[in-house]
From TrEMBL:
The keyword rRNA processing does not apply. Keywords: Membrane, Transmembrane, Transmembrane helix, Transport. InterPro entries: MFS (IPR011701), MFS_dom (IPR020846), MFS_trans_sf (IPR036259). Its main location: membrane. The lineage of its organism: Bacteria, Pseudomonadati, Bacteroidota, Sphingobacteriia, Sphingobacteriales. GO terms for biological process: xenobiotic detoxification by transmembrane export across the plasma membrane. GO terms for cellular component: plasma membrane. It comes from the Bacteria. The keyword Transport applies. Residues 13-398 form the Major facilitator superfamily (MFS) profile domain. It is found in: Membrane. The chain crosses the membrane at residues 12-33, 53-71, 83-103, 109-130, 137-155, 167-186, 214-232, 244-269, 281-301, 307-328, 340-362, 374-391. It is a multi-pass membrane protein. This is Putative MFS family arabinose efflux permease.
Length: 405
């Protein structure tokens, strides 16, 4: 039991838990610059490569709905060992196959494995710490996690140029292998008391949460905000390499820049959390829509890498603002069931994102800056409509509360 371990061992386990956090971002994003190379190597359409990402996101999202309760029942340690082993094996298998269908299936396995690792790592901190010390560690979660999406495509672009697209998955196998070796040598079970799974209570709790309109609308805002970012990740590499004729290294630099834009959006939100709904939410989403309309107009006359990435940088900042704001608000809807609400919210956000990505993948080949801009516009319209409906609901609820009082 880790709770009975020495302070030095617990500090080491805590440090390695933070080291493991960016892994989920690496599994998602490291091979994005290699999309064109994979399509050429496997002799398939670009949408088939995009579906490998959709398969992963859908699996990751659905798994989060159930993993938390399972880990509370059977513990954290052995599932983590199994998850890391599956991640190593699936990554190695991907490097030795020429079947896109098999890659999609292996990405489903990776989605489940990463879901186990993410939930178990979050739970480890709650198991080992409490009070202000726990809050202090939790405050670093988003910052540490964001290192994955920021650094992964940058590293992946160089790995693909120096070796081949398979090098990305060899890196994932090495990363997971190092974590597995540490877990075996130094880690252990962190949960003090395992809980029995009460299926009826869990279903009733989920039902109660799903009946809250504002909570569900908030999840949709989170999903579509993240979908805007993933839209570039899915289509941008093909435009940059096939239309603008830049290398995978340039793709890595572009995704690195846009990764920072997402982080900037988070920092901006922290400074604006005290504002009312209109300046905090409605103003940014309308500004984002205006930027996208401007990108459509500019694309009619001029298309270049610098224009596309420049507009995307500010569009993604707004997505980061909206995501961080609604993530914080959604977690406060059910404070007595924060763990379950967080799992439900995280799972549904990735399900919404994966379905959005699937629609993008089957909507046709995106080869131009203008094609990207119009898909941005569709997501922006959906975001605006959902947010305006939320504003109407909030005004009605506040009006009913004032009249009843």
């Amino acid at each position: 039991m880790l709770k009975e371990a020495s302070a030095q061992r617990i500090r080491l386990v805590t440090f390695m838990a933070f080291v493991s956090m960016p892994l989920s971002g690496f599994v998602t994003d490291i091979y994005l610059p290699s999309f064109p190379a994979m399509a050429k190597s496997l002799l398939v359409h670009e949408r088939d490569i995009q579906l490998t990402l959709t398969s992963y996101l859908l699996s990751y999202g659905i798994s989060q709905l159930f993993i938390g309760n399972i880990l509370d029942s059977i513990g954290r340690y052995r599932p983590k060992l199994l998850a890391l082993t599956l991640l190593i094996l699936s990554s190695l298998l991907i490097t030795h196959t020429h079947s896109v269908l098999l890659i999609c299936l292996l990405r489903v396995v990776q989605g489940i494995a990463i879901s186990i690792l993410v939930v178990a790592t979050r739970a480890l901190f709650v198991d080992l710490y409490a009070g202000d010390r726990l809050k202090n560690y939790l405050s670093y979660f988003t910052i540490v996690w964001s290192c994955g999406p920021i650094l992964a495509p940058f590293l992946g672009g160089y790995l693909e140029k120096l070796f081949d697209w398979q090098a990305n998955f060899y890196f994932l196998a090495f990363y997971a292998g190092a974590l597995l070796l540490f877990e075996v040598l130094y880690s252990g079970e962190s949960i003090a008391e395992k809980k029995k799974i009460n299926l009826r209570d869990n279903l009733n709790l989920y039902k109660m949460m799903l009946q809250n309109k504002l909570f569900i609308l908030g999840i949709l805002v989170l999903g579509f905000s993240y979908s805007i970012v993933m839209l570039f990740n899915m289509t941008g590499p093909f435009i940059i390499e096939n239309t603008f004729h830049f290398s995978s290294v340039t793709i890595g630099y572009c995704t690195l820049i846009l990764g920072f834009s997402w982080m900037i959006g988070g920092f901006v939100t922290k400074k604006r959390m005290h504002l009312d709904f209109v300046p905090r939410i409605i103003a940014p989403v309308l500004f984002q829509a205006s930027l996208i309309v401007a990108l459509i107009v500019v694309s009619m006359f001029q298309q270049s890498l610098y224009i596309m990435v420049g507009f995307a940088f500010f569009i993604h900042i707004i997505s980061g603002v909206l995501f961080t704001s609604f993530f914080t608000n959604s977690m406060l809807f059910f404070p007595k069931h924060a763990g379950t609400a967080g799992g439900l919210m995280g799972g549904m956000v990735y399900i919404v994102t994966s379905l959005s990505n699937f629609i993008v993948a089957i909507s046709g080949k995106v080869t131009t800056q203008n094609g990207l801009a119009w898909r941005y516009f569709i997501f922006s319209v959906l975001l605006t409509l959902i947010i305006m409906y939320m504003w109407k609901l909030q005004k009605n609820n506040s009006g009913q509360n004032s009249s009843s009082s």
